[in-house]
Write a structure and sequence with these properties.
heterodimer; A: elongated; B: five-stranded parallel beta sheet; 12 helices; 27% helix
Chain lengths: 198, 285
């Protein structure tokens, strides 16, 4: 077997852990389960992450960086905020379909088990790459006059709450259609509620 | 022989003269320099004698306006004549440097080298001997520095870098609060940073108010008043006590700080509650 480097191995562990957590739940899955799934010893797994909590924190950072990278690309495009909203929605829903464990982890584990993230992930630290890109997106939209100037969290909550809600409905099997079916109208709704009307 | 100075006033409120008279080392400065003319203190020459005076340094206070008369003197012409003869020109105060406050009333008023951010008509004549000391008023130590020194490293607005390379934020006693994003809730308190809620301009204003203190003891931000950015060509601004934000994000980043870096750092800083700083340290009530 070709030798794989430590970084790749780490990534493999994180991807596997994510899948297990989102399928079975964070508290149900043990470090031993993860090691078993990866055909490695628990001792070896602890060489990469010295506790399940440490792994949990790295995972949210990992997801946040991944999401941030894509949104950053959208932010860099020379297009209107309206078009950016559509691209962000598309990307988010696409991720929810292709890598549901990413979004699931964020919604079900990170947001609902705050105590796990109390130390070392205070406030926005572990999601800061993602939040920063969303801030840049909003800030530029207001600066160029396309979006209405308002409190950041009102806008952020509207945007992310809506997307998160849809992914949640999808996860529960409650959406009559494929999630991407809704992209167009959801983008439109978000844009309408954020745009500058003056 | 003492070097000779003429202090000429254009359209001004006298503020820089008053500031200069508060220079703690004024007596020793007067050992090296002689004021042939200063409008506020006894000096050998009168305004009408200046045309033929022999001197070294021309200090200008106040904005310039063509055709503007003081007594029977056309100040602009007199300035032009003296400026040609001077070995060095020191423009003191934001009016003489950028046009300043009076320009708000009369847009034809300009500074010596600059009309706000643009070069003035006089620029090409005098750029190679003019030192700019903006401020409303200019700090007396800065004025003295420009009078006493001859070789300067100047920035794009001809301001000496020794004084203006830093921002007013540097040396503020509230830096610890700035770092952790703890804001003062009102003026005049000794705690909290004045950036987000009081409109402090110091992070993007060039000057040494917090390094070379006023009256050797204090500065605006140390005493709890936001910096108004008076050393910049954008002064005077309206809405002084307000930091412009786009969705809560400051429209101007601290000088030289990229937006993403700033947002990341502040996002993290805000994630921590620092009880020592959010609590009152001195003024309990
Ligand atoms: S009060 Fe102004 S100068 Fe002082 S730390 Fe805050 S922003 Fe900087
Ligand atoms: S603190 Fe700011 S407004 Fe006050 S004098 Fe200094 S540069 Fe001007």
């Amino acid at each position: 077997m070709a030798k794989i480097n430590k970084e790749d191995r780490k990534k493999q562990i994180m991807d596997t852990a994510l899948k297990l957590f989102s399928k079975e739940g964070f508290f149900e899955v043990t470090m031993a389960d993860i090691a078993k799934e990866l055909h490695m010893s628990v001792g070896n797994l602890y060489n990469y992450f010295n506790s399940k909590d440490a792994l949990a924190k790295e995972l949210i950072l990992y997801i946040s960086k991944h999401l941030a990278e894509e949104i950053r690309k959208i932010n860099m495009m020379q297009i209107t905020s309206k078009e950016k909203i559509r691209k962000i929605v598309d990307f988010y829903f696409h991720t929810a379909k292709e890598r549901p464990e990413f979004i699931e982890y964020f919604l079900r584990i990170y947001l609902s088990n705050r105590e796990v993230f109390k130390h070392g992930c205070e406030g926005m630290i572990c999601v800061s790459p993602f939040v920063t890109e969303i801030m840049v997106f909003f800030e530029e939209g207001v600066r160029n006059g396309e979006l209405r100037n308002q409190d950041f969290f009102s806008a952020f909550g509207l945007f992310m709450g809506y997307l998160g809600g849809m992914v949640f409905l999808m996860g529960e099997g409650l959406l009559p259609n494929d999630i991407e079916f809704y992209s167009q109208e959801i983008s439109e709704n978000i844009y309408r509620s954020l745009k500058n009307e003056s | 022989m003492k070097a000779k100075i003429i202090w000429l006033q254009g359209v001004t409120c006298n503020g820089n003269s008053h500031s200069f008279l508060n220079l703690p080392s004024l007596a020793s400065l007067l050992q090296q320099f002689e004021f042939l003319y200063h409008p506020l203190f006894p000096s050998p020459l009168q305004l009408m004698d200046l045309h033929t005076a022999d001197f070294d340094i021309l200090v200008v206070e106040g904005g310039l306006k063509q055709g503007w008369k003081k007594g029977d003197k056309d100040l602009y012409e007199l300035f032009f004549h003296l400026a040609q003869k001077a070995k060095k020109i020191v423009a003191v105060g934001s009016c003489a440097v950028f046009g300043g406050v009076f320009k708000e009333f009369d847009p034809t008023i300009t500074g010596v080298l600059f009309d706000k951010t643009k070069k003035s008509k006089l620029y090409e004549h005098f750029f190679n001997k003019t030192v700019n000391i903006p401020g409303c008023p200019a700090h007396p130590e800065w004025i003295a520095f420009a009078i006493e020194n001859d070789s300067f490293s100047l920035d794009e607005y001809h301001r000496p870098k020794e004084i203006f390379a830093f921002t007013v934020h540097s040396g503020c006693t509230r830096n610890e609060y700035f770092e952790w994003k703890v804001d003062a809730k009102s003026f005049g308190t000794k705690e909290g940073c004045l950036f987000y809620e009081q409109g402090c301009q110091a992070p993007f204003t060039h000057g040494s108010c917090n390094r070379i203190l006023w009256n050797e003891i204090n500065s605006k931000t140390r005493s709890g008043t936001p910096c108004f950015g008076c050393t910049e060509p954008t002064f005077p601004k309206t809405g002084l006590f307000h930091t412009k934000t786009y969705m809560g994000i400051p429209a101007n980043m601290p000088l030289g700080v990229p937006k993403r870096a700033y947002l990341t750092i502040t996002g993290i800083a805000k994630s921590f509650q620092i009880p020592r700083l959010t609590r009152k340290l001195i003024d309990e009530n």
